[in-house]
Amino acid sequence: MRVIVTGGNSGVGAATATALAVLGHDVMIACRDVDKAQRVAVEMPGNIEVRSLDLADLASVRTFADSVETVDVLVNNAGVMGMPLTRTVDGFEAHMGINHLGHFALTCLLGERIKDRVVSVASATYLFTHLDLADLNWHTRKYSKWAAYGQSKLANLLFVRELANRGVRAYASDPGATDTDITRSMGMGEHQRIRKLLHTPAQGARASLEAVTTDLPTGTYLAPRFNQLGAPTVTKLRPKAVDPAMARRLWELSAELTGCDWAI
């Protein structure tokens, strides 16, 4: 299969890309830091291609999508976490703009060129927040970087739900607590005892890898057996992550904000 992995130059994304290449799939790493990705790709086995994609810039997303002829699986893996209030090129709050809206635009622009499925990497942090569609990009609310991250992950889950509702094969995966650049930058992996408890990137990639090949029903959520730790298993989502009305409204708002839609 031909697989695109966004953010495949580090962490869980790199582990996902590596494992897919080992299995014989053609893998395209799509990321902002092309030089870093090329250095990483040299160490990967199999057929690896690197292309530029900046999810914080819709013009870059369009340019990248225009360059893709066809793809079997799109893995929406790239993401940011715990950022101070920052805005993308298009004025979106960075967590929502990169983690959700950039991937929404990419998925819709590729549209029917995605031949098999979409996999979106989510997070259990969705449990602690709710979406505010009236202020999706934090223009009027008091900003919270953790709430912003959690809401972007809830948006990922609702996006998967709406894709499934529209007949697209789509899955959500959750790496759990994983020792990557993101967690280390948050101070979560500094203490050796804590780091020993975290998943390795390869362990964190297990849910996405299962989602790439599973025959489970579209819309399935694969997450660690013990919430943040353990092998992936089918996990029931809270009602707010599968609310059909909210999923449809988020899709409509995302299409309006990005100027991208997929008439499935």
Nearest-integer average pLDDT? 92
Can you say what the CATH homologous superfamily is? NAD(P)-binding Rossmann-like Domain
Q: Structural class of the secondary elements?
A: alpha/beta
| CATH domain class | Alpha Beta
Give the CATH architecture: 3-Layer(aba) Sandwich
Give the count of helical stretches: 10
H-E order: EHEHEHEHEHEHHHHEEH
Biggest β-sheet, characterized?
8 strands, mixed
InterPro entries: NAD(P)-bd_dom_sf, SDR_fam
GO molecular function: oxidoreductase activity
Family: Belongs to the short-chain dehydrogenases/reductases (SDR) family.
Keywords: Oxidoreductase
Question: Strands, helices and their partners?
Answer:
Blueprint: E1 2-6, H1 11-22, E2 26-31, H2 34-42, E3 48-52, H3 58-67, E4 71-76, H4 94-110, E5 114-121, H5 145-165, E6 170-173, H6 181-185, H7 192-197, H8 201-204, H9 206-213, E7 221-226, E8 229-234, H10 244-258
Parallel strand pairs: 1-2, 1-4, 2-3, 4-5, 5-6, 6-7
Antiparallel strand pairs: 7-8
Helix pairs in contact: 3-4, 4-5, 4-10, 5-10
Task: Walk me through the structure.
The protein has 264 residues and is of the alpha/beta class. It has a single domain (2-258), classed as NAD(P)-binding Rossmann-like Domain (Rossmann fold, 3-Layer(aba) Sandwich). The protein is built from ten helices and eight strands. The protein has helices at residues 11-22, 34-42, 58-67, 94-110, 145-165, 181-185, 192-197, 201-204, 206-213, 244-258; strands at residues 2-6, 26-31, 48-52, 71-76, 114-121, 170-173, 221-226, 229-234. The chain has an eight-stranded mixed β-sheet with strand order 3-2-1-4-5-6-7-8, with helices on both faces. Strand 5 (114-121), helix 5 (145-165) and strand 6 (170-173) form a beta-alpha-beta unit. Helix 5 crosses helix 10 (244-258). The longest helix is centred in the middle third of the chain and has 21 residues, at 145-165. The two termini are 22 Å apart.
